[in-house]
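TICKET: design request
STATUS: open
ATTACHED STRUCTURE:
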């Protein structure tokens, strides 16, 4: 930001002058000049004080106040803090303010005051209307005007003074009238001094605050209030926040006082700057409708008064500045934007601002400063998109204007201005980030940034819309990005400068701008900007290190252009290592070329040789001629120079000069079997005819010496030397455009007696020419490129060469391993397996090898598809999933070992999958260092499993015919009392479904404690003597249980399901298995939960099972209300029958039945005929249900179908009938049952039949 006046960029905060804290004059060092204060008044720093002053509490208080107030000085470029703090300046008590207005000189004419209403009007010394002003006659804003309000004129003046204190009396009764007179005189002098300062501040509208320093003893004096009132009245101080009394305090208490003082005076400061804004606004309104015309005959060389557009710029800028002093950011930004718009309009007319003039340059600086002010105020509120949009807008608009002024992209002035814009933005963002500004992540484009326009538009109609991606010009970046943009623009500036400097036109080369440009150290600026960008890219951790290395490359390039080759080499070394590791061959070309040139300029022959070899290795040339030139330069260096030491190139930062291809003929060989391999070294296009290699070292193990192949120069190219290490054949293939790349080929064989992975990790080429010994390592595991995409085995060296493609992965490796063991594995078992049984599987292993083998086995049981938990048992180990490391012992050659694996299956039928791993080990003697030969054989066994038996269940429900207990029956409330008893008749049928005959040893009922159910009887007690018995496929066994169901009184709502109170256990085994180690299987038969049907109002008819002719018998009708909450009002109707004589009520209204109660009606019947005779029809209706049906019938409309109407009363009576059930035939399915063979309550409405026998 040094390109612009600091006054135009600094953050404005209210200014406070503090006077009266200077150390005593005799404490200053007379041999040193004290630092100058405001208006040249000396202000001592108080570094040297006498011992007496160090003990003076008021001297200590003044020093602490200077430290506390000096720490609150605020004049930074970036300061978004909105706390009520001031920019505190320590000044002398006699400080004077600059004159507000001065009279015009006596020779001033009407032309000098175009806006004056009368001669002799006073104006500011910095006004364009004042002839002595630097802005006269058409200037806009001078930085000195901003400096005046930043450093010369405060908004609040704080004056520290010492109040006079009389000496302490020796006696409480002592009265000294002389001290009273001196006290009054001292207070009068103090009030006079304050009044003089009050007069000077009141003339400028500045708030004056006086702080009187007194001792703690003085604060307790009763006369203090009267003295303070006298001083306030005599000096004319304000009544509010104008007079304070301060005694010596600690540092923490003093900081609190300073903070409270600034808080109390902040409103006065804002009022001061607000008054300035109102004054400027009035002047703007006064001059807004006036226009200024050029005087006749005035031209560019004559003084022209400021036009109305210029006055608008001045007023808007001043109102923005004063609003910024008041910390009203939104209002300040609005005025700054209006100022920028007015400046843009002024630049649009060359008549108002002629290009390349002094006022034009000042206006350009002002426009740039205003633009950065606007961006900074946007950034204070984290409006990043708006800040960037305005920056791009300023850049685009003024770039267009400069093209119109003849300062376009072809000039260095244009790029100098653009670079300055990016640099100031980068510095502003850097200040903000240091102060805690959180930049947004550029994952999604910010709202509103799409409206920003870059300098030049390169978007074509066929491109993807910007909404589908992120344009860096429309998303705020970290400061390093803009430093990089500034550096790039500075490079463009330097190139344009060089182009203009090379021209022979005297009018161009002799311009003042070019003369100033020659004084600029362009390379230093470029290096500085790229260095800042480099550091910021590293610190912000962008996640892409290549951008950081690109910055380093640009720095190295700048050092290279500046001739600082040693610094350029340091950066090239750092960059090249990363690019070599990441194999960016194309990007290394320019780096290697400049790096090599640096070595030449530095005279470093060894570095030059190393880089020339690397350029050959990476083919960092575009033509064969350049490659030959590099070879010739190498040969010339080898012949004309001598190195100080042998050169050993590092494989990590060097590409192979010959591309290696290591191929093994086989991927695996056994111990002692030769492994044949080839080493093929291939040069790039054109070969290396100028270089001759003397040795090749082949490393296959770091613990063994390498295989050395030596080259013997021979005049006969058909000679092929041989070595004793296998067979070596080498040949050179002649160069030509139709021939393949030159290569060197060697065939070798390696035999190993221990298991190992054979590889050729590295090769080493030796280049011995003259006194040069260059060792070139070749890393075969991490090469940049391959000579062929598919590995090929060279079969002949005759022309043309013949190859065999090797279509095998990892052809550069051969594994030497033990010979696989020979064994035979078999499984014996009888499928299918049955659920719940211990299923034996015999594992038999036969050793068919010629040596002793030790076998271990791992068994993995895969989980089944159902939720059943399966088990496997092998020996003493049992698991639900994995049995590991079960030893089968040592087996001699030809021996057989057997083990039995037991599989216990649960759940449903299906396949059970067993994965078996058989490890075989050779027996090594203790003295042997060789690891044992271990083989692993995998087998998968699938066992089909079926259930041994399939149960089926039938459950029906009946009611208890006994009457329900009365409502007030106290026995219902006993702890173990039950009521509402029902009976569930459960039939269990077990079908033998397995293919094998089984022997059932027993079937037992295992009771369980269930609160609402218990088994009353079971048919198993009658068949216990029939077990054991044999069941074949298709055999069935049935049993029946009666379960009593009831409800508990302490429950408001019963559960939906009632668990069956127990289960059945079937103990069985296969009939053909006699192994005593196999325990009998146990299958559990779990009866489904009981879900009795919902009950309501029901009638139970209890009569004998048969009758005798003419013999009377009794009949009982029990009406039970089994509803939970509804009361019933039953009505009884009995139809007569010709077969019986009935004695009892025929039409009766029964008592109202509360929930859980019942009522009984008794009848006597005499049969009149024999046979299966129908009983009289007993009809029971619920009167309450009948009333509800009638109400619903009245609320609905008539029948719209057009059918013949039916009797609605008859339909309602039928719907309200209560089932009348015969005791003993009250069988119903459960709520979820789909068995329709069991009758329900709806089938018992038409009556019942009774067999009648003759008497």
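STATUS: resolved
RESOLUTION: sequence designed for all positions
ATTACHED SEQUENCE:
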């Amino acid at each position: 930001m040094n390109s612009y006046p600091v006054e135009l960029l600094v953050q404005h905060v209210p200014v406070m002058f503090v006077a009266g804290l200077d150390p005593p004059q005799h404490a200053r060092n007379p041999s040193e000049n004290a630092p100058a204060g405001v208006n040249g008044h000396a202000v001592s720093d108080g570094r040297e004080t006498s011992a007496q002053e160090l003990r003076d509490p008021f001297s200590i208080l003044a020093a602490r106040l200077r430290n506390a107030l000096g720490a609150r000085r605020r004049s930074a470029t970036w300061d978004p803090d909105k706390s009520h703090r001031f920019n505190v300046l320590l000044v002398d008590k006699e400080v004077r303010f600059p004159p507000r207005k001065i009279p015009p000189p006596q020779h001033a004419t009407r032309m000098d005051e175009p806006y004056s209403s009368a001669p002799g009007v006073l104006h500011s010394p910095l006004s364009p209307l004042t002839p002595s002003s630097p802005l006269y006659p058409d200037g806009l804003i001078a930085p000195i005007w901003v400096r005046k309000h930043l450093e010369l004129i405060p908004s609040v003046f704080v004056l520290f003074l010492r109040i006079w204190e009389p000496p302490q009396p020796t006696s409480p009764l002592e009265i000294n009238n002389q001290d009273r007179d001196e006290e009054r005189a001292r207070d009068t002098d103090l009030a006079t001094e304050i009044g003089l300062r009050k007069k000077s501040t009141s003339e400028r509208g500045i708030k004056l605050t006086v702080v009187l320093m007194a001792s703690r003893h003085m604060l307790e004096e009763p006369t203090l209030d009267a003295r303070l009132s006298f001083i306030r009245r005599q000096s004319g101080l304000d009544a509010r926040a104008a007079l304070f009394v301060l005694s010596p305090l600690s540092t923490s208490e003093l900081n609190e006082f300073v903070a409270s003082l600034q808080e109390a005076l902040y409103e006065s400061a804002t009022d001061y700057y607000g008054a300035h804004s109102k004054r400027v606004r009035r002047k703007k309104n006064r001059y807004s409708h006036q226009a200024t015309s050029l005087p006749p005959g005035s031209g560019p060389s004559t003084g022209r008064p400021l036009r109305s557009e210029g006055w608008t710029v001045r007023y808007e800028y001043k109102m923005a500045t004063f609003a910024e002093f008041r910390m009203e950011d939104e209002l300040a930004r609005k005025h700054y934007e209006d100022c920028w718009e007015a400046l843009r309009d002024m630049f649009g007319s060359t008549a108002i601002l002629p290009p390349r003039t002094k006022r034009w340059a000042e206006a350009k600086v002002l426009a740039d400063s205003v633009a950065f002010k606007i961006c900074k105020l946007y950034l204070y509120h984290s409006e990043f998109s708006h800040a960037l949009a305005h920056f791009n807008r300023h850049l685009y608009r003024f770039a267009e204007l400069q093209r119109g002024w003849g300062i376009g992209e072809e000039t260095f002035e244009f790029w100098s201005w653009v670079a300055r814009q990016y640099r100031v933005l980068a510095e502003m963002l850097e200040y903000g980030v240091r102060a805690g500004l959180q930049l947004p992540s550029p994952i999604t484009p910010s709202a509103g940034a799409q409206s920003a326009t870059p300098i030049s538009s390169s978007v074509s109609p066929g491109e993807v819309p910007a909404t589908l991606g992120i344009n860096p010009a429309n998303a705020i970046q970290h400061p390093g990005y803009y430093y990089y943009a500034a550096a790039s623009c500075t490079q463009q500036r330097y190139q344009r400068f060089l182009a203009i400097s090379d021209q022979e036109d005297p009018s161009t080369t002799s311009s003042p701008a070019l003369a100033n440009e020659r004084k600029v150290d362009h390379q230093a600026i470029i290096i500085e900007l790229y260095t800042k960008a480099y550091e910021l890219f590293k610190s912000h951790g962008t996640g892409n290190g290549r951008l950081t290395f690109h910055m380093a490359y640009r720095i190295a390039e700048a050092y290279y252009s500046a001739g600082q080759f040693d610094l350029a080499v340091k950066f090239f070394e750092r960059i090249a290592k990363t690019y070599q590791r990441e194999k960016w061959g194309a990007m290394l070309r320019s780096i290697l070329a400049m790096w090599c040139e640096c070595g030449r300029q530095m005279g470093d022959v060894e570095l030059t040789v190393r880089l020339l070899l690397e350029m050959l290795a990476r083919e960092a040339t575009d033509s064969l001629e350049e490659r030959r030139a590099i070879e010739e330069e190498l040969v010339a260096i080898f012949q004309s120079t001598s190195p100080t030491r042998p050169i050993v190139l590092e494989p990590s930062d060097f590409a192979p000069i010959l591309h290696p291809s290591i191929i093994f003929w086989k991927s695996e060989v056994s111990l002692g079997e030769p492994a044949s391999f080839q080493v093929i070294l291939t040069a790039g296009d054109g070969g290396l005819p100028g270089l001759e290699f003397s040795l090749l070292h082949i490393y296959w193990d770091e613990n063994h010496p390498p295989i050395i192949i030596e080259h013997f120069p021979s005049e006969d190219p058909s000679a092929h030397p041989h070595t004793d290490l296998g067979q070596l054949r080498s040949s050179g293939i002649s160069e030509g455009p139709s021939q393949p790349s030159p290569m060197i080929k060697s065939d070798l064989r390696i035999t190993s007696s221990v298991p190992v992975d054979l590889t050729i990790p590295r090769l080493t080429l030796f280049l011995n020419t003259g006194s040069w010994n260059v060792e070139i390592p070749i890393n075969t595991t991490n090469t940049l490129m391959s000579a062929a995409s598919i590995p090929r085995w060279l079969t002949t060296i005759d022309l043309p060469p013949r190859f065999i493609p090797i279509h095998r992965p990892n052809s550069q490796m051969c594994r030497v391993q033990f010979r696989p063991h020979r064994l035979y594995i078999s499984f014996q078992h009888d499928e299918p397996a049955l659920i719940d049984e211990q299923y034996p599987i015999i594992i038999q292993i036969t050793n068919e090898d010629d040596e002793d083998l030790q076998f271990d086995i791992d068994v993995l049981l895969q989980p089944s598809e159902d939720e059943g938990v399966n088990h496997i048992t092998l020996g003493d180990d049992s698991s639900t999933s994995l049995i590991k490391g079960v030893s089968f012992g040592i087996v001699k050659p030809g021996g057989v070992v057997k083990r039995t694996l037991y599989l216990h299956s649960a759940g449903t039928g299906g396949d059970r999958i067993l994965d078996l791993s058989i490890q075989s080990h050779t027996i090594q003697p203790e003295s042997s260092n060789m690891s044992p030969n271990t083989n692993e054989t995998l087998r998968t066994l699938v066992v089909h499993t079926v259930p041994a038996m399939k149960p089926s269940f039938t459950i029906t429900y009946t009611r208890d015919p006994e009457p329900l207990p009365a409502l007030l029956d106290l026995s219902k409330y006993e702890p173990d009392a039950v009521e509402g008893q029902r009976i569930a008749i459960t039939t269990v049928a077990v079908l033998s479904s397995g293919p094998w005959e089984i022997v059932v040893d027993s079937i037992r009922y295992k009771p369980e404690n269930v609160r609402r159910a218990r088994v009353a009887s079971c048919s198993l007690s009658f068949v216990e003597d029939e077990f054991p018995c044999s069941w074949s496929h298709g055999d069935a066994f049935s049993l029946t249980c009666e379960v009593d169901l009831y409800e508990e009184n302490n429950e408001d709502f019963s559960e939906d399901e009632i668990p069956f109170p127990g289960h059945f256990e079937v103990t069985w085994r296969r009939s053909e298995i006699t192994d005593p180690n196999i325990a009998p299987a146990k299958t559990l038969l779990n009866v489904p939960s009981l879900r009795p049907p919902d009950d309501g109002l029901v009638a139970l008819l209890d009569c004998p099972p048969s009758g005798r002719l003419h013999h009377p018998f009794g009949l009982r009708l029990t009406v039970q209300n089994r509803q939970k909450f509804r009361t019933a009002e039953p009505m009884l109707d009995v139809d007569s029958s010709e077969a019986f004589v009935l004695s009892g009520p025929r039409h009766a209204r029964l008592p109202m039945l509360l929930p859980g109660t019942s009522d009984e009606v008794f009848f006597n019947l005499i049969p009149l005929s024999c046979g299966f005779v129908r009983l009289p029809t007993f009809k029971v209706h619920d009167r309450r249900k009948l009333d509800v049906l009638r109400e619903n019938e009245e609320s609905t409309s008539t029948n719209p179908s057009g059918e013949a109407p039916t009797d609605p009363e008859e339909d309602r009576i039928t719907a309200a009938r209560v089932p009348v059930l015969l005791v003993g035939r009250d069988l119903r399915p459960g709520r979820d049952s789909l068995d329709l063979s069991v009758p329900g309550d709806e089938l018992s409405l038409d009556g019942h039949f009774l067999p009648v026998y003759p008497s």
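CLOSING REMARK: The mean pLDDT is 80. Residues 656-817 form one domain.
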